[in-house]
Amino acid sequence: MATLLHIDTSFNGADSHSRAVTAAFREVWEAEHPEGTVIHRDLAAEPIPHLGAAAYYAGNTAPAERSPEQRAAFALRAELIEEAEQADVILIGAPMYNYTIPSTLKAWIDHVFLVGRTSVTEHPSLAGKRAVVVASRGGSYREGTPMHGNDYVEGYLRQALGGGFGLDVSFIVPELTLAPHVPAMAELVPLHEASRAESLAAAASLAKELAA
Q1: Domain extents for the chain?
Q2: Angstrom distance (rounded) from CA 133 to CA 92
Q3: Whether 175 contacts 194, CB under 8 Å
Q4: DSSP string, 167-200
Q5: Nearest 5°: phi and psi at 33?
Q6: pTM of the model
Q7: Regarding beta strands 89-93 and 37-42, do their DSSP bridges make them parallel or antiparallel, or are they unpaired?
Q8: DSSP letter at 88?
């Protein structure tokens, strides 16, 4: 039975552009896998704690030698890792906040990044799985734009998810999401609308492809 791990991080709820695109992907994936399983982690509604010392060092300690505090702290890491390992596809909504990813997503990565199991090992347990990242942003960071070079979302996630976990990562990038709300960006609204339509179409197409 196919499993999709769907992670959302935007705090904008129904107004979120990344959530709209992850929802479009999920809708098609579920239609292709009516008997499939979806694990949904809404890290904005239910944030996980940032990785602390007890959870971190528990990962480097044999289970039988862990302290009670380490065992309790590691339980969440184990749960998050097992969800990722169960998934055939990992879908992540990653809006740009202040040039980079939401801290809640960084917390998820830190918990799942376990040396000797999911990373820094000859056969990482997530290696080869497909991941789709919806990296929405309020402006445009394309080459030739004034903000080119200030995108610290895509490069980081390529390294963390691809280099660290061995995932095969695809990006969908809805741009200029602030254009309808910022008067100075009004002339960019048509470009925003085109980007949104392209992103929704890309999500549906990629979901169908990965469901095959």
Answers
A1: 3-211
A2: 5
A3: no
A4: -EEEEE----TTTTT-GGGGGGHHHHHHHHHHHH
A5: -130, 70
A6: 0.96
A7: unpaired
A8: S
Q: What is 3-211's CATH number?
A: 3.40.50.360
Q: What is the pLDDT of residues 51-82, one digit of tens each?
A: 999 999 999 999 999 999 999 999 999 999 99
DSSP symbols for 37-74: EEEEEETTTSPPPPP-HHHHHHTTS-GGG--HHHHHHH
Are 130 and 88 a contacting pair, CB within 8 Å?
A: yes
CA nearest to 131, candidates 79, 92, 93: 92
What is the rounded distance in angstroms from the CA atom of residue 81 to the CA atom of residue 30? 23
For residues 150 and 114, the answer to whether their CB atoms sit within 8 Å is no
| Residue that is written with structure tokens 């056969």 in the block | 123
